[in-house]
Task: structure prediction
Amino acid sequence: MHTQCLYYQDAYLRAFTGRIVGRRQVDGRPAVALDRTAFYPTGGGQPHDTGTLNGVAVTDVFAADGVIWHVLEADLPDEVVTGALNWPRRFDHMQQHTGQHVLSQAFVTCCHAETVAFHLGAEISTIDLNRTDLDADALAAAEATANAVVDEARPVTATFVTQEELARLPLRKPPKVTEAIRIVQVEGFDWSACGGTHVANSAQIGLIKIVGAERRGTELRVSFLCGRRARADYGRLQALASGLAARFTCSQDEVPAAIERLAREQQATRKTLEELEAQWAEATAAAWWAESAAVDGRRIIARALDAPPERVKALAQALRSRPGTIALLAARGERPQLIFARSDDVMLNMGELMRTATAAAGGRGGGRPEWAQGGAPTAEGLDRALSAATNVLLGK
Result:
């Protein structure tokens, strides 16, 4: 069996007829092989096409030994079928793939950076470059060069060539195969061996936009969008910018300054809040310490608060700075916590006391002799833990 690949003859072919020449099961689903097909199989960094055969959804397409298999959503008893591509998906892949060729050559032209890998994702595409030292200016230069080629509407052609013809072409990189070598040419700019589907001229790429770059070992991964994806992303960013401008009651150009101003105000507010939190912790600790009675030279302060754990920890620190103090504190909330602390002049192991207390509450905990933390499954468990720890200290 051998499948005639109609997408090589016409990448814009959206519907076709074919005959089923093979059947099999793939991961529990029916699959058919056709004598001819316009469905592109996964390969060369490009995902497979989707669509229908006689109205039955095609969910996957792959090639094996010259045969293209179509994985179906349901059984297809017919022998002759009419195929219909999911055209928006196919054209999107054509835009991204041709855009990749142009962008990869732009990086060669501007930065002497070679593409070592390409991935066409469902939302974003990437190329991996063999250089990691490219800065923002270098990326911008490559993007501008690529978009200049887009603006020039250069013809994009694909032909199978002989080894003699191949030797005369200025290929971006040598082909990985030695037979049936197909060269995709962006006229006067890029020549690459490729089996994928492409637009007819560079203008149909629409737009090439680099949206990110990150170092990955010895390579630089560049993320980009082309055509409809780039326009959709521009719409998203425009909506975001408009929303921020409305929120700050300013123009879009003034948004960065408004955000910077808000960040400074937030930093000042956070500093003031931290100072007030510290003052509150100190004042509360002083009041609790004064209210508590000394027993054998020690003051035991056991309290449960409806407060965040960090605030309770600040209270524990303020209390342990006072002589002869044992602080048994708890923070109620979604995850009830216990904080036990003692001043340096009290010879008592708070880690051991915490383990005893949390065991009584059905929780777990431990720590150092001067500071320990633990948890309880419920707020009632906190009360049992505090009671158990207090009884141990009082010898009950």
About this structure: The radius of gyration is 34 Å. The CA atoms of residues 357 and 389 lie 5 Å apart.
